[in-house]
Amino acid sequence: MTIAAKLPSILIANRGEIACRVIRTAKRLGLRTIAVYSDADAEALFVQMADEAYHIGPAPARESYLDAAKILAVAKAAGAVCIHPGYGFLSENAEFADACAAAGIVFVGPPASAIRAMGLKDAAKALVEKAAVPVVPGYHGAEQGADFLRGEARRIGYPVLIKAVAGGGGKGMKKVDRPEDFDDALTSAQREGASAFGDARVLVEKYVLSPRHVEIQVFGDSHGNVVHLYERDCSLQRRHQKVIEEAPAPGMTPEVRAAMGKAATEAARAVGYVGAGTVEFIADGREGLQADRFYFMEMNTRLQVEHPVTEAITGLDLVELQLKVAAGEPLGFTQDDVEAKGHAVEARLYAEDPEKGFLPSTGKLWALSFPHGEGIRIDTGVEAGDTVTPFYDPMIAKVIAHGATRDEALDRLGAALGETVVAGPRSNLAFLKKLTEAEGFRKGPFDTGFIDRNIQALGAEPQPLDAAAVAAVALQLEEERQVAGIVEAAGRAEGEARSPWLVTDAFSLMPRQPLGLPLTVDGERVDARIEWRGEDARVSLPGHEIGEGEHEVSLAEGEGGVWYALHRGRQTAVSLFDPFTVDLDAAAGSGGVVKAPMHGKLVALFVAPGEAVVKGQRLAIVEAMKMEHVLTAPRDGTVSEVVGEPGAQVAEGAKVVVIGE
């Protein structure tokens, strides 16, 4: 009997890229696909792909994708036989798994008992220790008093890592290097844990020096079989969030793989695991990967974001395997049957701005295109014209490359990123491209601190104006001017209105005169000058040199006269200068205006009007995509104005605090 015969219909309790991913495999297997969507996702790609789609509430996740009762009600009404939770949201919610079972609906994931056993980091560590799996030294107990935890950190020895007990994806995780920073880090970790997972509890662990993040993909079935599908290296991280993942892990030896694989499968067996899961280890990479220098971190009881690299090297469809196991069938293969071929690398393309501390970026995708070369796979949940909202994870796509060797896979990934176009929200495209080319990453050794140590070389800091990008837009604007002039000239004979673009010499037989073009470039005034040499127009920018042989610049038109120029993966927003849109605070040289760097929620204010502050002092915290961003004083002075209050939404660029002299 086929999977479709046993599980004829599936509801995907998720959104975006992973919903699209599950729908593709489910349709290939012949299942009827059912989507659920929030207000923000009414026109989303996954909604269009599904056979049926049902609205479940407003944009905030707690009122839609985290509302288990609504999702189960839709599943019953639509006749869904099974529910795939994807990752995030309800995917590791034991109560939801129980509720599915009570409703007679198959939960495509492990039993609730396994989710509970591995869902809390402290309990999971205690459990795997009994199975002789090594764990990181630290405090994993129930006591949560700040004084007690501060004492435990002192006992463990700095640096330490504070981690939300129910955490994941870097949320609620803070590295602390000094005792004096512990209290602020603890408060922030607790707040992020409560916001993202509804649980403010934390644990404190020793921070492993030169850490490598290596994880093992495990799979179990209801017949007692448990295998691993090799490892993934996820050491390229920023703020404990994965950026590039690969399989197999560089420098992995058969001895270490066997030891890690055994530890991972033993951990899975200890909880009666069924389905796809990932056992994550932290390894001391100072002397390469060694069988006695890796430690259990946590088990993710769901499909991982980075599962495509495992699929690429094993040839297995992990979603199909999930459905097969959920249908009660055995895996159908043993550990000896699992073979890895070649190397695969995945880059997470996000709507974020590396030049502004990787702050999330929102807005309409005016252009979005990907290459489709040999060994390239693109997993995405958005199309050109869609909007990246502030309500969910800002992932645009996963770009995956597979090759015979690691170098070939990285070469293919770099080439694919070079051909990718993203316009509208800022993205980490240029940053990812530089990572694929970074000598330290390609030749090693590297660890989870690689990005932080090389942040400047990777371009993740304010960059100078991209003259080539500005010049390309200036030429585009001049071409529009000429077209407008032709249209206006044709219309003058019929008495039509005069085009605002037309200049008096546009159709003169005399040589065209140089043209000054006032522009706004990423919010700043820039004056361009266009000169002609015969029919060729040349652009110059006072104070900026436009190099010869520059890479091709891609242009995408937004709204309000804004053009987005993409050059080497970096975006520059250019428009004609409009004096009526000038930021008066900036024009007046008001360096004391502290603005929200992105759309989000003001979760904390630490100052009030009349208070004296010093440069670097914390003023407020803005939360976006469940991550906190601290606003600090740009100079010494006195607070003259505070806008808003904790709990209020703030728009990108909105004034939050003003500091006077």
TrEMBL record:
Transit peptide as UniProt keyword: yes
Requisite cofactors: biotin
Entry's transmembrane regions: none
Domain Biotin carboxylation as annotated: residue spans: 6-456
Positions of the Lipoyl-binding domain: 585-660
Chain ranges of the ATP-grasp domain: 125-327
Cross-referenced Gene3D superfamilies: 2.40.50.100, 3.30.700.40, 3.40.50.20, ATP-grasp fold, A domain (3.30.1490.20), ATP-grasp fold, B domain (3.30.470.20)
InterPro entries: ATP-grasp, ATP_grasp_subdomain_1, BC-like_N, Biotin_BS, Biotin_carboxylase_complex, Biotin_carboxylation_dom, Biotin_COase_C, Biotin_lipoyl
Database matches in Pfam families: Biotin_carb_C, Biotin_carb_N, Biotin_lipoyl, CPSase_L_D2
CDD domains listed in its UniProt record: biotinyl_domain
GO-annotated molecular function: ATP binding; ligase activity; metal ion binding
Keyword terms, alphabetized: ATP-binding, Biotin, Ligase, Nucleotide-binding, Transit peptide
Superkingdom to which the source organism belongs: Bacteria
Protein name stated in the entry: Acetyl-CoA carboxylase biotin carboxylase subunit
